[in-house]
């Protein structure tokens, strides 16, 4: 008599039997693999708890004792916060803070934090309208970033060399690296007059950019006239040579000034001396009033104009000067910096009158 399989009538019971068999098989396979690996049958306790923060709470919210321990010697004031490696903690772990500079740094115009804040609009990497054609973004070092090897090398060269030695070394440093040195030094350790002249050389600028920070340095009244006369006096040595690929590569293209920034230094020259190729002009914290009425005729390509933190623009006479300025003549103006100035609705309407796209007024 053949054997007959008894099939249970309840399908749920069959499902439970199958699940039990599979669970037993998985358990036997796991215990067998642990025995082969000569490991204990049970797993250790979990090393990571998902309901706990990934960083110690003392690193995110330091106690008063930790703050005093990190403060260092008396009288030392750190202008930059302590940064921790890794991603930023969630917003619920940190207390809200303002991205602006502290009150102590804003009062000291000679501090690196204030200079970084004042030059942020000029050194912004987002605005590409005032860069020379073909140039790359050469912004200053931001908070929490490690300096590049090129920047560390430039700092070592500047620390070990005098102004006379810098003048001999600069021809061997590419112009774009000289521009990086000028930008970073303007924030952290402004260049002296001799160092600025050595870095800029006969061209009078570093890769189309010139940044002068006072009271460490000032421009000579004939700075731009000397540059123009030196270019005209250079003999045309390559006129009789054959135009080959090698000669064109070694000769290169002449560099012109695109960006001029004066910070806390007087204006010692006439606006008529400025080259018409300037597209970025920043006159920040200039001690004496400057007449900008003829700026459109001398620099018609200006797309960024920064007049921030000038005390002579704060009174009522300064407000009237801004409102009566012929803004319509600056056809290429895109960004206008008026930080620290009183910007009225009348001024905004005067700046944007007759324009298809409104000017970005930063105040």
Q: Mind explaining what this structure looks like?
A:
- The protein is α/β, with parallel strands linked by helices and 363 residues long.
- It is built from 14 helices and 6 strands.
- It has helices at 11-36, 57-60, 64-71, 103-107, 112-118, 149-160, 163-169, 175-188, 193-200, 223-233, 245-251, 295-298, 316-323, 345-351, and strands at 209-213, 259-263, 280-284, 304-306, 335-337, 360-362.
- A 6-stranded parallel beta sheet has the order 1-2-3-4-5-6.
- Strand 5 (335-337), helix 14 (345-351) and strand 6 (360-362) form a beta-alpha-beta unit.
- Helix 7 runs parallel beside helix 9 (193-200).
- The longest helix is centred in the first third of the chain and has 26 residues, at 11-36.
- It is elongated, with a radius of gyration of 33 Å.
- The model is unreliable at 71-81, 94-105, 127-139, 237-243 and 245-252 (pLDDT under 50).
Number of DSSP-assigned strands: 6
Strand arrangement within the widest β-sheet reads 1-2-3-4-5-6
Described by the principal axes of the CA atoms, the overall outline is: elongated
Give the C-alpha Rg: 33 Å
N-end to C-end Cα span: 101 Å
| Largest beta-sheet characterization | 6 strands, parallel
Give the proportion of residues in helices: 25-40%
Element order: H for helix, E for strand: HHHHHHHHHEHHEEHEHEHE
Parts with pLDDT < 50 across at least 5 consecutive residues: 71-81, 94-105, 127-139, 237-243, 245-252
As an assembly, this protein is single chain
What proportion of the residues form beta strands (DSSP E)?
Answer: 5-15%
**Structure class:** alpha/beta
Query: What integer is the average pLDDT?
Result: 76
Total of helices: 14
